[in-house]
Amino acid sequence: MNEFVKKYAVDRYKTNSLKWDALDVRFGDPDLLSMWVADMEFQTSEKVIEAMVERCRHGVFGYSYIPDDYFKAFSHWMEKRHGFPIEKEWVRFSTGVVTTLYWMINAFTKPGDACMILTPVYYPFHNAVKDTKRKLITVDLVNNNGYFTIDFAAVEKAIIENEVKLFIQCSPHNPAGRVWTEEELDKIMGICKKHNVLVVSDEIHQDIIIGDKKFIPAGIVGNGKYRNNLVTVSSASKTFNLAGLLHNHIVICDEKIRERYDEYAKTVNQSEVNVMGATATQAAYTYGEEWLERVLEIVKGNYQYLKEELGKKAPEIVVTTLEGTYLVLLDLRKYINPEDTKIFIQDKCRLAVDFGEWFGANYQGFVRLNLATDPKYVKKAVANIIDEIKRL
Ligand SMILES: Cc1ncc(COP(=O)(O)O)c(C=O)c1O
What we know:
Layout (H helix, E strand, L loop, with lengths): L2 H6 L9 H4 L1 H5 L5 E2 L11 H13 L9 H15 L8 E4 L2 H12 L5 E6 L3 H9 L3 E6 L1 E3 L2 E3 L2 H11 L1 E7 L11 H13 L3 E5 L27 E5 L2 H4 L7 E4 L3 H14 L6 H13 L1 H25 L4 E2 L7 E5 L9 H8 L2 E2 L1 E2 H4 L6 E5 L4 H16 L2
Parallel strand pairs: 1-13, 3-4, 3-7, 7-8, 8-9
Antiparallel strand pairs: 2-10, 5-6, 9-10, 11-12, 12-15, 14-15
């Protein structure tokens, strides 16, 4: 067994885990193999755990303050890995990326305004627009046999026709698996700029790069020329498996946008930062690189295995090209009727997955599997799918 898996993989049953202990509540069946939701079966880096234990031993969990070393660690990580050093003045904090998306919609648009997303996309993007009583504009990505691209003409048309005010960008894209090229980002952000559409770029998956493409933060596209039309939201939570700590970054380079955000934030956020989230994030960005590299190897291995095995034994399943994120989308429609997906995947294959229609109306028949897990689960999931396909 792989040394990393031996050391870090854990059984998460009976740990109040949403992924493993809420199967009954979420899927009506407690005995499924859980391949849904985006967190990992790996303990985070021991350096992160040590920093948190030390903090716990101190035993005081009073109001917290973010030290300069925190900003240095964050900026250094962003510069080293993504070529985007972050200035302290640009950074604000929140208690989750999804919460932040709601805030951005409220801060920068009015009820009834149109907000755009590119589907299929992470379902809270849809909810954020609908729950805040904005008009949801979806533009489908183009699906070239599992490789998704942007239909720029359709995007521009949708913006003009609906007077879109805000675009929630997903980069890298969940669940399309794309790491957008600088050219693609330049085009879409150029269109947004031309039509005064604020770009809110969700870059939570920035460090989970599986293929050869380099992740380009929206803030450095065209040497930073879109910074005056941009809010970037990110977190160490996907990278280091810290989602339960509820801590993330809002990066706003532009002073005017920052002022507007700060005015809004006064009305919704009067909290200091989460001390454990900040402690973990600082340690992760300071010491966690080696751990991350090992996780990426596991995800790549799991993806290669799934792709090869399905390619050989269930070749009509379209496996999305995974450039980034640890979430792979499978298109099952050549084998099953889209309406039968749940019966097939859940009742027959015994898997808990994220269903395609959660990500967009046209994606019934797709399922999303989480690959940041012990390879034994990926093998089991793939074997179950292949066995059930043979029985069709
Ligand atoms: C694109 C994207 N944004 C946000 C989140 C969740 O962020 P948070 O837990 O900080 O709300 C996820 C989790 O899967 C995600 O895929």
